[in-house]
Amino acid sequence: MAPKRVYLETFGCQMNELDSELVAGQLASLGYSFTTDSDQADIVLYNTCSVRERAEQKVWSRLGALKAEKAGRPGLVVGVLGCMAERDGTDLMKRMPVVDLMCGPAELDKLPALLDNAVRTRASFLADGPASADLRSARVSALQGSASRRSSTLAAAGDDLEMLDLARAVSPTDDDAKRSAYVRITRGCNKFCTYCVVPHTRGAEIHRPPEHIIDECKKLADAGVIEITLLGQTVNHYRFEHGAAVVVDGVTQPQKGRTYKGSHHRDAFAGANTTTFADLLRRIHDEVPAIQRLRFVTSYPRDFGDDVLEVIRDHPRLCRYLHVPAQSGSDRILKMMNRGYTIAEYDEFVARARSILDKPEIGRPLMLSGDVIVGFPTETEEDHQATKDMLVRSRCKNQFIFKYSPRPGTVAYDRIPDDIPDAVKRRRNNELLALQSEISDSISREQIGRRFEVLVEGVSRAEMKKRGADVKPGSGMVGITVGGRDPAAAATLELPDTDETVQLSGRTDTDLIVFFEVPSAKAKRMLGSIVEVEITSADRLALTGRTA
Ligand code: SAH
Ligand code: SF4
Ligand code: F3S
User: Fold this and answer.
1) Ligand 2 atom at minimal distance to the Cα of residue 199
2) Contact yes or no for 43/121 (Cβ under 8 A)
3) Does 332 fall in a domain?
4) 380-439, pLDDT tens digit by residue?
5) Scanning 337, 338, 368, 397, which has the fewest C-beta atoms within 10 Å of its C-beta?
6) Pick from 121, 145, 169: which residue ends a domain?
7) What is the DSSP letter of 132?
8) 456 bridge partner residues
9) Contact indicator for 436, 399 with CB cutoff of 8 Å
């Protein structure tokens, strides 16, 4: 069969971005090639998100558009991967005949076989005409089904999904090599917050063996990566019990997470012969020194021990940045969300993190960020006020604020009517945004005069525009593929070897965006490296400075 060109588009969170990268590597090793133009593709894959209705709507509209397209290109194979495939299941296939294959996020190791199957079915359809193949019944899917939450440790067979991470293809060092990468430490989630689809789409919490994680970090570092973001839904729950490790065909298997009715005390996750999250951070820091920045998302406000905070304090390459969503400031709502902490406990965590980590006087402030759901069912003005008070007290550098979106299959969807009118959600959303923007602005201004180490990510968007270069909407920073968001947005700009200034952009270890100007001839060398910048002005979204 002729080599097939794949168009792969990713929606949703960092976990999905990483999945897409792994899937792309796996398909490339099997001879598939890739295109950024869906019109040129033989196979269109959407790696989807289900977390809010809007996320799903984007994919529905893409699929709608493909319907007409496919009429004129009968050989086209269309696949839906990721959380939406898992959540909608075969309903999606019924509703969208254009879809040939579906693959849930916990089944991505099966994608090559599914794809091969779908491609062959389409090919026989083309060769013999529609009568030869009952295409509807030939459509294929791999979904775990929410009932059978993937089991692990004691399973007799090896965890094939782990092989997908282990087989990660890492490109060799060159000028344009990625400097920033994601590494998964935990899959799935056991928390079952009442509004959330993630435990249903990604399955039970599973921790990867520390050796696998560290080897992956080393492999990435050898390929030129200097910044790693560890991924998990609740990273601070990471725990691997070596005594209970199971080895299948020479491969240590990931381990099912336990649910702790617990506290944030330092030993909640410790134990003899156990690698805790704090241990894991320390080991990566010490064993992979080429990684200059180590971050992690997402932290859960409960069960966050002092041990983790102390490791961050004592290890310079661990970033002083924590994404710790509170979701609401009201105890009543937190309870209905099944978050398992009170707002007093959240406040206590923030105070503890600040007392251990916040050291602005040595240029190492602590930055926090969070998520909030506004308009959760039954939310009163009083609850809303409590959320505002929480925003003021926690003083996060930014908050991602989401209007509550009822998700079929979740407890809230089944048991709590979505009774807050959209107009009210919208008003409260705007109020929170306005308040947070004041807070972000004042935090930004505090940075003026401070010096930061900035990882230079690229030429700023403004500079690209000024030079008439091709700036892709939504790609944020462009010029070099740091962050791995959009490889297609890599440098299209030639920097002249002169003294004229170019505006570069980068980030502090605390995740603040910094712009600064340097002579063009120097700019290229700086991309992907860390430079010291003194902040001279600031607004809500970014800092501006000069190289120190
Ligand atoms: N594991 C992370 C969150 C992952 S989902 C945590 O617990 O913090 C990312 C964010 O999407 C959540 O923090 C929440 O704010 C938002 N979210 C999840 N489900 C939602 C829903 N049904 N409606 C609106 N926002 C939602
Ligand atoms: Fe969803 Fe809660 Fe798990 Fe986060 S912790 S992924 S919000 S269920
Ligand atoms: Fe979306 Fe699934 Fe991530 S629902 S937010 S892609 S875990």
Assistant:
1) 8
2) no
3) no
4) 999 999 999 999 999 999 999 999 999 999 999 999 999 999 999 999 999 999 999 999
5) 338
6) 145
7) G
8) 506
9) yes
Cα–Cα nearest to 452, from 356, 364, 522: 364
Positions of E strands within 427-529:
451-459, 501-508, 513-519
Instruction: Give the CATH number for residue 365.
Output: 3.30.750.200
Q: Is 326 in the pocket of ligand 2 (CB under 6 A)?
A: no
Q: Other CB atoms closer than 10 Å to residue 354's CB: what's the count?
A: 16
- What number does the ligand 2 atom closest to the CA of 192 have? 8
Collect the ranges in the chain with pLDDT lower than 70: 1-2, 129-138, 145-157, 171-177, 259-270, 469-493
Query: What span, in angstroms and rounded, lies between the C-alpha atoms of 387 and 335?
Result: 14
Max CA-CA distance within the chain? 75
Neighbours of 305 (CB within 10 A): 22
Between the CA of 14 and the centroid of ligand 3 the distance, in Å, is: 8
pLDDT of 170 reads 81
Residue range 184-223, pLDDT digits in tens: 999 999 999 999 999 999 999 999 999 999 999 999 999 9
Domain final residue, candidates 130, 145, 160: 145
Q: Are residues 188 and 289 part of one domain?
A: yes
The terminus-to-terminus CA distance of the chain in angstroms comes to: 57
Is the same domain home to 170 and 302?
yes
Q: What is the CATH number of the domain that holds 288?
A: 3.30.750.210
Dist CA 295 CA 196 (whole Å): 24
Q: Which numbered atom of ligand 3 lies nearest the CA of 202?
A: 7
Scan for tokens 């076989």, then name that residue: 113
Distance 404 CA to ligand 2 centre (A): 14
Tell how far the Cα of 334 is from the centroid of ligand 2, in angstroms.
13
Shared domain for 404 and 482, answered yes or no, is no
Number of C-beta neighbours around residue 224 at 10 A: 19
Rounded Cα–Cα distance for residues 57 and 148 (Å): 27
Give residue 32's domain range.
5-145
